[in-house]
Write a structure and sequence with these properties.
With 183 residues, the protein is an alpha/beta fold. The chain has two domains: 63 residues, no CATH class; 104 residues, 3-Layer(aba) Sandwich (Hypothetical Protein Ychn, Chain: A), CATH 3.40.1260. 15% of the residues lie in helices and 32% in strands. It contains three helices and twelve strands, in the order E-E-E-E-E-E-E-H-E-E-E-H-E-H-E. The strands form three sheets. A six-stranded antiparallel β-sheet has the order 1-2-5-4-3-6. The protein has a four-stranded parallel β-sheet with strand order 11-8-7-12, sandwiched between helices. Strand 7, helix 1 and strand 8 form a beta-alpha-beta unit. The radius of gyration is 17 Å and the shape is globular. It starts with a strand and ends with a strand. The model has no long low-confidence stretch (mean pLDDT 92).
Length: 183
């Protein structure tokens, strides 16, 4: 597609693309960019472009449109966001836009993956005493934003939880967190 600019390669081999479009002004975090048969996750929006995740631009000049519902977090305090695979991008899009409105330490994120990770995890700087001590893998960007995150992946990657994600969710609920799932 004309105008798509590759910005960087993600850890899972996909690209982050800058897509100039008038739809950028209409984008709400949680929506995807429909380009023909592909519904592409959107990481964030600039004034005149969307940043989407895809292996490559669509081969044909499809009409682009926004699909899906906006992610609404009216009260992010004491909230655990649980994302599944590409649902992470909806949560990150919301955070790019609203993170300054969230008090440090009040929002947490559990990223559940069954596919390759789109980023390189790192040990978190934040302790989570309610979770097993070996579960330390975090999203580096969220650590920088003072948002506690953990990763669940069935392949037993270092620092990642390889059991049923519901076990971690239950531990966070016992600590008083409300749960919201983002797919």
């Amino acid at each position: 597609m004309t105008g798509w600019q590759a910005l960087e390669t993600l850890a899972d081999g996909r690209q982050l693309w800058r897509v100039p479009t008038a739809l950028a002004g209409q984008f709400a975090p949680g929506q995807r960019l429909q380009a023909g048969p592909a519904a592409l996750p959107i990481l964030r929006a600039d004034a005149d472009a969307l940043h989407v995740v895809a292996h490559s631009p669509p081969a044909d000049d499809f009409t682009l449109q926004l699909t899906g519902s906006a992610l609404v977090l009216a009260e992010p305090a004491s909230l655990l966001l649980v994302t599944h695979d590409d649902g992470l991008f909806a949560a990150l899009a919301w955070l790019f836009r609203h993170r300054r409105k969230v008090a440090p330490g009040t929002l947490r994120l559990l990223a559940v993956f069954n596919t390759a990770l789109p980023f390189r995890p790192q040990p978190s700087r934040y302790l989570t005493p309610m979770l097993p001590s070996h579960v330390t893998a975090a999203l580096p960007l969220l650590d920088d934003w003072q948002i506690v995150s953990r990763i669940a992946h069935p392949d037993g990657m270092p620092g990642c939880f390889d059991g049923e994600p519901e076990q971690l969710i239950a531990a966070w609920q016992q600590a008083g967190d409300r749960i919201m799932t983002v797919v």
